[in-house]
């Protein structure tokens, strides 16, 4: 205790002493005085304690709070000093403080302060403690929001269009750009203007609308595409699907790395018979709209004869037309000052050079070639044509009219002189698209019209360099045609066209171009098939289905520019497997991806009808791509959400003999866990895991399911491939979407066993077997009972009892064969094998360029001609 306080105590003691004279005896007084004079501390302390006791007693008795007491002025208190009657009860009421002397007041003040300090301390402790209180957390978050908003964050007054989104991201989950985890509160502003364009593709309309690759849609197209037919529901679904927050693995081709614009060596080597389709057609296809099976053979023969005639018939060339002496390096792909300007002024969405993500090539060189003066020297008329009529220069919304095309054509004629190549861009083509068998919706038409120039409604594909490459060519030339591609190799020949591997000149980007001769199609009445394929391709946006980058008509040749799959098809891949059949995990992978593709198609109202390994191509990343839609049936579909009660209704269909302990088949191999069904029960861990899986599957089954199966689809056409034909097609009873589940069963069977189940010595026998013969499984190779059960469920002859006929893919996905499969992430899983580029005969662009040899494709009446330059 310090001297000051000691002094105070003494003063107070003295006062206290005086005041207490009346209440105590004189002997006490004398004793106290004596003690005080002697400075006896003990007695003084006793005294003080005494007083404190009195205060406590008083406070507790009268119910006065410390703060109330502290609120009284000590001076006031001292003025009202009265002798403290210890223990004397006082009535409550005003004037209670009157009995409090100075010391008491000071004590009260001290206590009050101490309690305040303690309270403050408690508060500060609680905010700093690891167990942060809710209030503290909110306060901290609020502060950080305020800081961000007023600091680097966007202004709140940016306009009404500015929307501030605050994401309460779990602190542990927030990733920074480098992939590191950052605990933070993210605040993001989404504008309908440029800000959203900078942001990564998101589930917002603004982001989609402002996709950097977008180009304005010509007025004409918009008006023509406003016809919305019966496929409205379908289109909405397509849009939904398109906006799923998915990041598809972008493809990249290794090999081709030498850039472009090479002057072609003049030669006249004919390639018609040299370039052979790498894939032998194993299964003849049926497409005649007849219910008689006798036409089957005929159709097949007709297809073969066409292919044969193509290969054998000597080429009758129009010398003028095939002498393609395009100076590709500078003149043939004529560029214009206006185009150049448009690329370098604000009108172009991309000022920076277009980089092909796949091959990492840049279009800078092409842009450099396209300097204004150079361009002018090449072709003044082209300059005029493009700049005046295309409207790309400076105009945000070019109006493409037929004049455009004719001007461009004139220019082409001037540049190419001897070439009669007439190119109609997809813009002119789009108006015809509505004349087809099926009405296309607004979004489909719009998509088609921008498909050649940007990624359109595919924000998740904005990083695909191929869109940029095509967009670049369109910006430069205002039109896209066959002349902008180097045809490198013939990939295959189908009923309605021939597919080429092609390189977009100046980009090192590879595409597969399906070239169809319109005259031929018209004569053979195959135009509707081509139209169907085109329309379906335009709708698609799925990782296991082809992307249509552009479409155009060039010299009466209809061309579809699609994604190129370098891995060949599953038929070829199966032949390479040991025993010519896939191991079960590989088969499971491929059929699962095909199932997702079919599910998507059905949701769009497309019954595929031609499933077979030949139509499943392998992408460079090893994942699949389902192609060939000319035999597909389009119909309406009404998506429904089925609740759990109804989904549980079919355990009978999903019999899954291995799901429980009842499986007695000796060689049964579980597909997912690779544990035989009769695996020892004394393995508690395995049993537990299995039970967990079953429980999980049951839980998933109990969730509501989106079912978009076109159950009302009906067709009487006799279409498909013999070995894959569903019984109802053969019987001519009319068929619907269930035919795809039949073919899916045959497909799985073929992958696992290396052959189809009903194949006969000839087509008639095959068809008879399909209808009459019961399903049998060979003894080898060993296939799990889950797989066999699935096949059994799919190859039910009556379509109404077939697995998938009611709820489509959702039903099939739940089969135990797919237990443990992560459907959502299957496209991210490592595929069974990656394409071997050397083995597949893939030649890099560089090697072609070294030789300076390209194909030229030309239609002369019935046949396409190819010439190697
Ligand atoms: N995107 C592609 N990438 C690589 N190769 C392809 C691609 N598209 C088609 N092909 C190859 O070209 C061949 C011909 O394809 P196309 O679809 O024209 O004929 P098809 O499959 O025989 O069917 P159809 O007779 O109905 O036209 C295919 O078998 C395939 O090998």
From TrEMBL:
Chain intervals with Low complexity compositional bias: 187-200, 427-451
Chain positions covered by the region annotation Disordered: 187-219, 278-329, 369-390, 422-460
Domain Protein kinase: 485-818
EC number: 2.7.11.1
Protein name: non-specific serine/threonine protein kinase
InterPro entries: Kinase-like_dom_sf, Prot_kinase_dom, Ser/Thr_kinase_AS
Protein family (similarity comment): Belongs to the protein kinase superfamily. AGC Ser/Thr protein kinase family.
Gene3D superfamilies per UniProt: Phosphorylase Kinase, domain 1, Transferase(Phosphotransferase) domain 1
Composition-biased stretches (Polar residues): 201-212, 376-390
GO terms for MF: ATP binding; protein serine/threonine kinase activity
Catalytic activity, reaction form: L-seryl-[protein] + ATP = O-phospho-L-seryl-[protein] + ADP + H(+); L-threonyl-[protein] + ATP = O-phospho-L-threonyl-[protein] + ADP + H(+)
Organismal lineage: Eukaryota, Viridiplantae, Streptophyta, Embryophyta, Tracheophyta
Entries under PROSITE patterns matching the protein: PROTEIN_KINASE_DOM, PROTEIN_KINASE_ST
Any Pfam family the entry gives: Pkinase
Keyword annotations from UniProtKB, A to Z: ATP-binding, Kinase, Nucleotide-binding, Serine/threonine-protein kinase, Transferase
